[in-house]
Amino acid sequence: MSAEPAPPPALGRRLYRGLAFAVMVGLAGAAVSAVPGLFLQSVFVGETQRCLEAQRRDIAVGGEIVTDCGEGLADAPVWLPVVMVAAGAAVGIVGGFGYGFFQPPGGGGAAEREKAWLPF
Length: 120
Fold this sequence. Notes:
Layout: H1 11-62, H2 70-73, H3 80-102
Helix pairs in contact: 1-3
């Protein structure tokens, strides 16, 4: 008994699989990259809060602000967390689409195949 290889899936089906995997892996990539993005944002917010507290203390003690820690915080890269999440999503989309488009459905004979958990 020789098992003939299955014909490759049609182009429409491969595009559908690529799109479905791109959405799934892209969302997962964005979720995973949100953690370091939120960490960086919390670092900048914490530093800003410490600076404001120091300036309030200066006003309460001497009536004028002598702490000049706020100048460097204005240049903080507030765009960095957004770029990190977008980059994680982009990598996930490209990788998910590549996997869904180029990966053949199934990997061997009928006895070796697992039960499909996706509808395609």
